[in-house]
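Good morning,

Attaching, inline, the C-alpha coordinates for the sequence recovery test we're adding to the shared suite. The designed sequence is right after.
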Protein backbone atom coordinates (compact mmCIF):
# COMPACT_ATOMS: atom_id res chain seq x y z
CA UNK A 1 0.00 0.00 0.00
CA UNK A 2 1.35 3.44 -0.97
CA UNK A 3 1.92 6.11 1.67
CA UNK A 4 -0.80 8.26 0.10
CA UNK A 5 -3.30 5.41 0.44
CA UNK A 6 -2.36 4.94 4.10
CA UNK A 7 -2.71 8.67 4.71
CA UNK A 8 -6.23 8.62 3.30
CA UNK A 9 -7.18 5.69 5.56
CA UNK A 10 -5.79 7.49 8.61
CA UNK A 11 -7.46 10.82 7.84
CA UNK A 12 -10.77 9.24 6.84
CA UNK A 13 -10.83 7.34 10.13
CA UNK A 14 -10.09 10.50 12.11
CA UNK A 15 -12.83 12.30 10.19
CA UNK A 16 -15.25 9.80 11.80
CA UNK A 17 -13.52 9.30 15.17
CA UNK A 18 -11.57 11.61 17.45
CA UNK A 19 -8.73 9.21 18.29
CA UNK A 20 -6.89 6.28 16.74
CA UNK A 21 -4.09 4.10 18.09
CA UNK A 22 -0.96 2.97 16.28
CA UNK A 23 -2.05 -0.64 16.78
CA UNK A 24 -5.41 0.06 15.11
CA UNK A 25 -3.69 1.72 12.16
CA UNK A 26 -1.32 -1.23 11.72
CA UNK A 27 -4.35 -3.54 11.53
CA UNK A 28 -6.21 -1.22 9.12
CA UNK A 29 -3.27 -0.66 6.73
CA UNK A 30 -1.24 -3.85 7.11
CA UNK A 31 1.84 -1.68 7.73
CA UNK A 32 4.46 -2.06 10.44
CA UNK A 33 4.54 0.07 13.57
CA UNK A 34 7.61 1.92 12.26
CA UNK A 35 5.84 2.72 8.96
CA UNK A 36 2.69 3.94 10.70
CA UNK A 37 4.75 6.16 12.99
CA UNK A 38 6.48 7.69 9.97
CA UNK A 39 3.05 8.36 8.43
CA UNK A 40 1.83 10.02 11.62
CA UNK A 41 4.99 12.15 11.84
CA UNK A 42 4.50 13.30 8.24
CA UNK A 43 0.80 14.13 8.70
CA UNK A 44 1.56 15.90 11.99
CA UNK A 45 4.15 18.10 10.26
CA UNK A 46 1.53 18.95 7.61
CA UNK A 47 -0.87 20.04 10.40
CA UNK A 48 -3.37 17.35 9.37
CA UNK A 49 -3.52 15.61 12.76
CA UNK A 50 -2.09 15.81 16.27
CA UNK A 51 0.21 13.03 17.44
CA UNK A 52 -0.55 11.48 20.82
CA UNK A 53 1.19 8.88 22.96
CA UNK A 54 0.49 5.68 21.06
CA UNK A 55 -1.55 7.15 18.22
CA UNK A 56 -3.12 10.34 16.87
CA UNK A 57 -5.98 12.78 17.42
CA UNK A 58 -7.94 14.67 14.78
CA UNK A 59 -7.66 18.45 14.53
CA UNK A 60 -11.26 19.48 15.15
CA UNK A 61 -11.27 22.72 13.17
CA UNK A 62 -9.59 21.09 10.19
CA UNK A 63 -11.90 18.07 10.26
CA UNK A 64 -14.99 20.31 10.39
CA UNK A 65 -13.83 22.42 7.44
CA UNK A 66 -12.96 19.39 5.32
CA UNK A 67 -16.29 17.74 6.10
CA UNK A 68 -18.11 20.94 5.10
CA UNK A 69 -16.26 20.95 1.78
CA UNK A 70 -16.89 17.24 1.12
CA UNK A 71 -20.58 17.56 1.98
CA UNK A 72 -21.31 20.26 -0.59
CA UNK A 73 -24.17 19.21 -2.85
CA UNK A 74 -23.45 18.43 -6.48
CA UNK A 75 -26.69 20.21 -7.43
CA UNK A 76 -25.48 23.43 -5.81
CA UNK A 77 -25.14 25.73 -8.85
CA UNK A 78 -21.97 27.50 -7.68
CA UNK A 79 -20.35 24.21 -6.63
CA UNK A 80 -21.11 22.75 -10.07
CA UNK A 81 -19.65 25.82 -11.74
CA UNK A 82 -16.48 25.56 -9.66
CA UNK A 83 -16.19 21.88 -10.52
CA UNK A 84 -16.38 22.73 -14.23
CA UNK A 85 -13.66 25.38 -13.79
CA UNK A 86 -11.50 22.83 -11.96
CA UNK A 87 -11.91 20.23 -14.72
CA UNK A 88 -10.99 22.79 -17.39
CA UNK A 89 -7.97 24.00 -15.41
CA UNK A 90 -6.67 20.46 -14.83
CA UNK A 91 -6.51 19.87 -18.59
CA UNK A 92 -3.71 22.42 -18.91
CA UNK A 93 -1.41 20.44 -16.60
CA UNK A 94 1.04 18.07 -18.30
CA UNK A 95 2.79 15.00 -16.82
CA UNK A 96 5.98 15.81 -14.96
CA UNK A 97 5.18 19.49 -14.35
CA UNK A 98 5.70 21.48 -11.16
CA UNK A 99 2.51 23.36 -10.32
CA UNK A 100 1.19 25.62 -7.60
CA UNK A 101 -2.47 25.21 -6.63
CA UNK A 102 -3.93 27.92 -4.42
CA UNK A 103 -6.51 28.05 -1.68
CA UNK A 104 -10.21 28.02 -2.41
CA UNK A 105 -12.76 25.45 -3.45
CA UNK A 106 -12.13 25.63 -7.21
CA UNK A 107 -8.46 24.76 -6.73
CA UNK A 108 -9.33 21.99 -4.26
CA UNK A 109 -11.66 20.43 -6.81
CA UNK A 110 -8.81 20.23 -9.34
CA UNK A 111 -7.48 17.24 -7.39
CA UNK A 112 -10.40 15.15 -8.65
CA UNK A 113 -9.24 15.63 -12.25
CA UNK A 114 -5.52 14.91 -11.80
CA UNK A 115 -5.66 11.16 -11.17
CA UNK A 116 -4.41 10.30 -14.66
CA UNK A 117 -1.72 12.99 -14.83
CA UNK A 118 1.53 11.33 -13.80
CA UNK A 119 4.69 12.53 -12.05
CA UNK A 120 3.31 15.82 -10.80
CA UNK A 121 4.95 17.95 -8.15
CA UNK A 122 2.26 20.01 -6.44
CA UNK A 123 3.09 22.91 -4.12
CA UNK A 124 0.21 24.38 -2.15
CA UNK A 125 -1.04 26.11 0.98
CA UNK A 126 -4.38 24.30 0.65
CA UNK A 127 -4.91 21.60 3.28
CA UNK A 128 -8.19 20.38 1.76
CA UNK A 129 -6.31 19.87 -1.50
CA UNK A 130 -3.65 17.79 0.27
CA UNK A 131 -6.37 15.52 1.68
CA UNK A 132 -7.79 15.05 -1.81
CA UNK A 133 -4.42 14.52 -3.54
CA UNK A 134 -2.76 12.29 -0.95
CA UNK A 135 -4.12 8.97 -2.28
CA UNK A 136 -3.02 9.73 -5.86
CA UNK A 137 0.72 9.32 -5.39
CA UNK A 138 1.80 12.80 -6.54
CA UNK A 139 4.74 14.56 -4.91
CA UNK A 140 3.09 17.12 -2.61
CA UNK A 141 4.77 20.02 -0.82
CA UNK A 142 2.55 21.79 1.72
CA UNK A 143 3.94 25.20 2.59
CA UNK A 144 4.11 25.80 6.33
CA UNK A 145 2.67 28.68 8.31
CA UNK A 146 -0.28 29.64 10.46
CA UNK A 147 -3.43 27.66 9.68
CA UNK A 148 -6.41 29.70 8.51
CA UNK A 149 -9.76 27.85 8.68
CA UNK A 150 -12.73 29.19 6.72
CA UNK A 151 -16.25 27.83 6.47
CA UNK A 152 -15.23 25.07 4.05
CA UNK A 153 -11.55 25.76 3.47
CA UNK A 154 -8.19 25.47 5.22
CA UNK A 155 -4.88 26.95 4.19
CA UNK A 156 -1.52 27.96 5.61
CA UNK A 157 -0.50 31.60 5.63
CA UNK A 158 2.24 33.88 6.87
CA UNK A 159 5.99 34.40 6.79
CA UNK A 160 6.91 30.70 7.03
CA UNK A 161 5.04 29.93 3.82
CA UNK A 162 6.89 32.74 2.07
CA UNK A 163 10.27 31.56 3.37
CA UNK A 164 9.67 28.09 1.94
CA UNK A 165 8.78 29.57 -1.45
CA UNK A 166 12.18 31.19 -1.94
CA UNK A 167 13.94 29.79 -4.98
CA UNK A 168 10.95 27.78 -6.23
CA UNK A 169 9.83 28.08 -9.85
CA UNK A 170 6.61 26.68 -11.33
CA UNK A 171 5.50 25.54 -14.76
CA UNK A 172 1.95 26.65 -14.00
CA UNK A 173 0.14 28.32 -11.11
CA UNK A 174 -3.61 28.27 -10.46
CA UNK A 175 -5.43 30.42 -7.94
CA UNK A 176 -8.63 32.32 -7.18
CA UNK A 177 -9.52 35.81 -6.01
CA UNK A 178 -12.53 37.24 -4.17
CA UNK A 179 -13.26 40.27 -6.35
CA UNK A 180 -13.03 41.07 -10.09
CA UNK A 181 -13.77 44.66 -11.01
CA UNK A 182 -13.38 46.37 -14.38
CA UNK A 183 -11.75 49.48 -12.92
CA UNK A 184 -10.00 48.17 -9.80
CA UNK A 185 -8.89 44.78 -11.09
CA UNK A 186 -8.45 41.75 -8.84
CA UNK A 187 -8.78 41.83 -5.08
CA UNK A 188 -8.77 39.45 -2.12
CA UNK A 189 -10.55 39.46 1.22
CA UNK A 190 -7.42 38.47 3.15
CA UNK A 191 -4.46 40.76 2.50
CA UNK A 192 -1.99 38.22 3.95
CA UNK A 193 -2.30 36.30 0.67
CA UNK A 194 -0.88 39.16 -1.40
CA UNK A 195 2.86 38.37 -0.92
CA UNK A 196 2.23 34.74 -1.89
CA UNK A 197 0.27 35.67 -5.01
CA UNK A 198 2.84 38.23 -6.08
CA UNK A 199 5.68 35.72 -5.69
CA UNK A 200 4.04 32.95 -7.72
CA UNK A 201 3.10 35.41 -10.46
CA UNK A 202 6.75 36.41 -10.87
CA UNK A 203 8.11 32.88 -10.68
CA UNK A 204 6.05 30.84 -13.12
CA UNK A 205 5.82 30.14 -16.82
CA UNK A 206 2.02 30.45 -17.02
CA UNK A 207 -0.54 31.80 -14.52
CA UNK A 208 -4.25 30.91 -14.52
CA UNK A 209 -7.08 32.54 -12.60
CA UNK A 210 -10.14 30.39 -11.88
CA UNK A 211 -12.96 32.96 -11.95
CA UNK A 212 -16.39 31.79 -10.84
CA UNK A 213 -19.43 34.01 -11.30
CA UNK A 214 -19.56 35.13 -7.65
CA UNK A 215 -16.47 37.33 -8.09
CA UNK A 216 -17.47 39.48 -11.08
CA UNK A 217 -18.54 43.02 -10.25
CA UNK A 218 -17.21 42.70 -6.72
CA UNK A 219 -14.40 44.58 -5.01
CA UNK A 220 -12.83 42.85 -2.00
CA UNK A 221 -10.69 44.35 0.77
CA UNK A 222 -7.16 44.29 -0.69
CA UNK A 223 -6.27 45.04 -4.31
CA UNK A 224 -4.00 42.47 -5.96
CA UNK A 225 -3.32 43.57 -9.54
CA UNK A 226 -4.94 45.11 -12.65
CA UNK A 227 -7.18 42.93 -14.75
CA UNK A 228 -4.65 42.61 -17.57
CA UNK A 229 -1.81 41.22 -15.44
CA UNK A 230 -2.93 37.56 -15.46
CA UNK A 231 -2.58 36.04 -18.93
CA UNK A 232 -5.15 33.23 -18.59
CA UNK A 233 -8.63 33.33 -17.08
CA UNK A 234 -10.78 30.21 -16.77
CA UNK A 235 -14.44 31.18 -16.46
CA UNK A 236 -17.90 29.72 -16.86
CA UNK A 237 -20.53 30.68 -19.40
CA UNK A 238 -21.94 33.15 -16.85
CA UNK A 239 -19.04 35.55 -17.42
CA UNK A 240 -20.53 39.02 -18.12
CA UNK A 241 -20.02 40.33 -21.66
CA UNK A 242 -18.37 43.51 -20.36
CA UNK A 243 -15.61 41.43 -18.79
CA UNK A 244 -15.11 39.32 -21.91
CA UNK A 245 -14.69 42.56 -23.88
CA UNK A 246 -12.28 44.00 -21.30
CA UNK A 247 -10.16 40.84 -21.36
CA UNK A 248 -10.04 40.95 -25.16
CA UNK A 249 -8.99 44.61 -25.07
CA UNK A 250 -6.06 43.95 -22.70
CA UNK A 251 -4.91 40.72 -24.39
CA UNK A 252 -6.01 38.22 -21.74
CA UNK A 253 -6.94 34.76 -23.00
CA UNK A 254 -10.29 33.65 -21.60
CA UNK A 255 -11.03 29.91 -21.50
CA UNK A 256 -14.80 29.54 -21.19
CA UNK A 257 -16.02 26.19 -19.90
CA UNK A 258 -19.46 24.69 -19.44
CA UNK A 259 -22.18 23.13 -21.56
CA UNK A 260 -22.48 26.16 -23.81
CA UNK A 261 -18.83 27.17 -23.85
CA UNK A 262 -17.78 29.20 -26.85
CA UNK A 263 -14.10 28.11 -26.77
Amino acid sequence: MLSGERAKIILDYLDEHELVSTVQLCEMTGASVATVRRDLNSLHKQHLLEKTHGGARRLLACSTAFSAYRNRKSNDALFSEKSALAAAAARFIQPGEVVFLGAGESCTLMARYLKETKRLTVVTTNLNLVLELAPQGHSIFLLGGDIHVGGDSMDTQGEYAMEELRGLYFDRVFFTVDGIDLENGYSVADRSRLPLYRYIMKNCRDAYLLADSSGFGRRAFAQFCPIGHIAHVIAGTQIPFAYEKKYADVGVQVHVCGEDAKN
